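Researcher: I'd like a candidate sequence for this fold, 361 residues long. If you have to choose between options at a position, lean toward the conservative one.
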């Protein structure tokens, strides 16, 4: 009988290890190295990221121009959107109209949640991935072999609004923030519809955005004593049409562009937007959802607040017929209800774009 090979890492199995939040772990005194079940030895964590240079950096979209009465300005921003979605799948949005104080209040509200003790947070540690309020650590500790260096809170805020009851006062902040972001997303989708050669209101109507599925997430990445060995979030694409992200001023997001990992340091008070799997499906692959990941650092706590804006849960998403012409005349993706895609998304280990592959024809 062959001798069993010793596992490279002590695997994180919820039944064997008491898994605390990364925040609790990082705050425990004298932490100079990471526990072995947080250590990645794959090349994904070690490969070098490049900084953007001025000739090839993340596009910037001036949102205020989308409502401009000057038709030249409007068509310029629509063509900027087309280029951004096609070349990068990521862009920054400036002049979006949200006051800085509202952005800061949202970061502070999430920080108050993360400051609860693990015991206090345990009411929201839903094991069921479909729970509308869910907090935890890593991604899915019952299947993750190695843990990710992040804690999270995920809240479904639309079509029904949910919110943790502790600490007090979150619901006003989350409701205001998420409805402002939904408005921003619907405005961007008007420009994106036009950029695809569709009517301005096409995506909004076809995807029933009045009942859009919207999930507000906060990721907390505490300082890590060995950041080169750990990973905040592995490479993945997002479900939904658009993800609209803000962060607390500390970098860590990397975008896969031209086969390289590019560091993204958003402009202060800008939102970072990326196109999701559902936009890739609708556009029949013209606007691809792009791989991104989060790395960690040893100095400062980073918080990112991505919000995924998708079709309504019951909407069937498939390539838009009007876009099936010329070279691109064959539907490349299967039709699937938004909520079924999400279930597929949640029930699989996060691994690049493997979920989108399941609906590719
Ligand atoms: O932390 C980040 O910047 C990225 C977060 C992310 O990609 C996600 O939550 O899907
Ligand atoms: Fe993401």
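Model: Candidate sequence:
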């Amino acid at each position: 009988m062959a001798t069993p090979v010793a596992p490279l890492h002590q695997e994180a199995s919820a039944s064997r290890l008491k898994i605390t939040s990364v925040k609790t772990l990082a705050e425990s005194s004298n932490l100079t190295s990471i526990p072995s079940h947080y250590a990645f030895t794959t090349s994904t964590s070690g490969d070098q990221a490049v900084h953007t240079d001025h000739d090839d950096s993340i596009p910037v979209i001036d949102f205020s121009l989308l409502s401009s009465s000057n038709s030249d300005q409007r068509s310029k921003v629509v063509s900027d959107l087309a280029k951004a979605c096609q070349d990068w799948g990521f862009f920054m949005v400036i002049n979006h109209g949200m006051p800085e104080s509202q952005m800061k209040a949202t970061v502070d509200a999430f920080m108050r949640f993360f400051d609860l003790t693990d015991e206090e947070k345990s009411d929201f540690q839903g094991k069921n991935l479909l729970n509308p309020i869910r907090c935890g650590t890593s991604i899915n500790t019952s299947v993750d072999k190695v843990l990710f260096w992040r804690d999270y809170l995920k809240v479904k805020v639309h079509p029904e609004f949910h919110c943790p009851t502790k600490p007090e006062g979150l619901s006003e902040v989350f409701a205001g923030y998420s409805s402002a972001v939904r408005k921003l997303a619907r405005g961007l989708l008007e420009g994106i519809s036009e950029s695809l050669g569709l009517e301005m209101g096409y995506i909004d109507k076809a995807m029933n955005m009045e009942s859009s599925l919207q999930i507000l997430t906060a990721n907390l990445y505490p300082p890590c004593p060995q950041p080169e060995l750990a990973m905040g979030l592995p490479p993945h694409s997002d479900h939904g049409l658009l993800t609209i992200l803000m962060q607390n001023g500390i970098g860590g997001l990397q975008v896969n562009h031209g086969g390289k990992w590019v560091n993204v340091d958003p402009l202060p008070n800008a939102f970072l937007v990326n196109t999701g799997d559902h936009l890739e499906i609708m556009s029949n692959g013209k606007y691809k959802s792009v791989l991104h990941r989060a790395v960690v650092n040893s100095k400062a706590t980073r918080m990112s607040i991505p919000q995924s804006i998708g079709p309504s849960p019951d909407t069937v998403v498939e390539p838009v017929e009007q876009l099936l012409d010329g070279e691109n005349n064959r539907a490349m993706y299967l039709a699937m209800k938004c909520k079924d895609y999400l279930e597929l998304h949640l029930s699989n280990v996060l691994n690049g774009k493997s979920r989108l592959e399941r609906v590719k024809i």
